[in-house]
């Protein structure tokens, strides 16, 4: 798994769909929890801001959850300092989105002209499929998925488009390394990151899930982005959203430079919610089959249950029953919902094929190359490498959450 991670309307539901049972909203008493609760309700419609929650706390939590852009029209009557700060954040995100769309659409068009098949993943795909406006889906980068055979061509296209490879993965073996980050600075000074994936889930243990050729055959067009833009089929996007949320129970991500561990950011739950509200009965069946085949039935249930608790996400009762009947205690479930970071690393090592590759994987994790270490600690890049390695080891040993389900 990568060590470095960046971050960052109500839809009518057919009556045939039912909510997951026993998922009433949790009641919290601390101020952050109260702010989170009001933000979750605001995603579902206008709501009053309780007087016991300070405006600055609501704003801070909205930025942490990545939902400032989703609150337009739901914060009338809120304290002016909160409403104005959220409006400014949404405007800043809209300005970034306008520029990032140009960068991404140009890249996708050139990729298509170069006969590289590309699928847009996660936030950027959903921004141009389900969010209105697209800028409401806050994020810090774009993720794209290609077939492994297209790596070299894709890299040439990225370089020709002015992107530079950011060495953020210590594993040198491309049969083990599953993604890399490319960065472009535009003339206006903004930096745009694109994560190039050749596997949907960045873990050797999860290599069998959402394989490229299968999802490409059922790709979903994203014409609001550009004519060359395609995403996963919506059922695949829902499975990825549930798995992505579970990955961050343990894996760190950064909001305004601060490290966080949690799978329950409201923007990720909103992704699950919006997808669940639009996929068709046949797509629910495909979702169930893919989750069970990948050993992710429990992970899917976990994501849907938390979205239901926080946002009232409707899920067909049959889906709940069939996912519950699928195997629950799978290696994939233990990896995502039952392991701490060291446990995940060990499971990934076991999943790497061949002794030579296992050694390369382990060595790359234990003693990353200098390029990786300098990139990981740019503010300390002049310090001796042994000092940087000690910092990395200390960070790895710092207590972190252990995976858990609902």
TrEMBL record:
InterPro entries: NTP_transf_5. Keywords: Transferase. Pfam families: NTP_transf_5 (PF14907). The keyword Transferase applies. GO terms for molecular function: transferase activity. It comes from the Bacteria. This is Nucleotidyltransferase family protein. The lineage of its organism: Bacteria, Pseudomonadati, Pseudomonadota, Alphaproteobacteria, Rhodobacterales.
């Amino acid at each position: 798994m990568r060590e470095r991670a960046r971050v960052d309307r109500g839809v009518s539901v057919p009556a045939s769909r039912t909510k997951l049972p026993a998922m009433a909203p949790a009641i919290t008493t601390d101020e952050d929890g109260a702010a989170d609760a009001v933000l979750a309700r605001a995603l579902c419609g206008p709501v009053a801001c309780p007087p016991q929650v300070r405006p600055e706390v609501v704003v801070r939590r909205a930025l942490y959850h990545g939902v400032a852009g989703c609150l337009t029209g739901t914060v009338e009557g809120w304290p002016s300092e909160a409403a104005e700060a959220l409006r400014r954040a949404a405007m800043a995100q809209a300005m970034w989105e306008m520029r990032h769309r140009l960068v991404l659409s140009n890249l996708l068009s050139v990729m298509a002209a170069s006969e590289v098949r590309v699928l847009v993943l996660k936030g950027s795909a959903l921004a141009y499929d389900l969010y209105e406006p697209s800028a409401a889906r806050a994020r810090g980068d774009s993720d794209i998925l290609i077939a492994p055979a297209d790596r070299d061509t894709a890299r040439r296209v990225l370089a020709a488009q002015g992107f530079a490879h950011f060495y953020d993965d210590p594993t040198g073996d491309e049969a083990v390394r599953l993604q890399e980050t490319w960065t472009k600075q535009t003339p206006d000074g903004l930096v745009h990151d694109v994560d190039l994936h050749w596997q949907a889930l960045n873990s050797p243990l999860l290599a069998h899930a959402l394989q490229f050729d299968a999802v490409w055959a059922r790709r979903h067009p994203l014409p609001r982005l550009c004519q060359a833009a395609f995403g996963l089929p919506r059922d695949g996007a829902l499975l990825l959203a549930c798995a992505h949320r579970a990955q961050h129970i343990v894996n760190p991500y950064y909001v305004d430079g601060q490290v966080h561990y949690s799978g329950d950011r409201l923007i990720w739950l909103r992704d699950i919610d919006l997808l669940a509200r639009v996929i068709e009965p046949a797509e629910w069946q495909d979702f169930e089959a893919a989750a069970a085949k990948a050993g992710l039935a429990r992970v899917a249930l976990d994501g849907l249950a938390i979205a239901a608790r926080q946002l009232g996400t409707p899920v067909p009762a049959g889906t709940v029953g069939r996912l519950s009947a699928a195997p629950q205690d799978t290696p994939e479930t233990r990896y995502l919902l039952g392991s701490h970071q060291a446990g995940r690393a060990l499971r990934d090592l076991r999943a790497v094929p061949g002794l030579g590759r296992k050694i390369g994987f382990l060595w790359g994790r234990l003693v990353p190359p200098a390029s990786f270490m300098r990139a990981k600690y740019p503010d300390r890049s002049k310090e001796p490498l042994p000092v940087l390695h000690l910092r990395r080891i200390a960070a790895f040993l710092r207590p972190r959450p252990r995976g858990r389900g609902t």
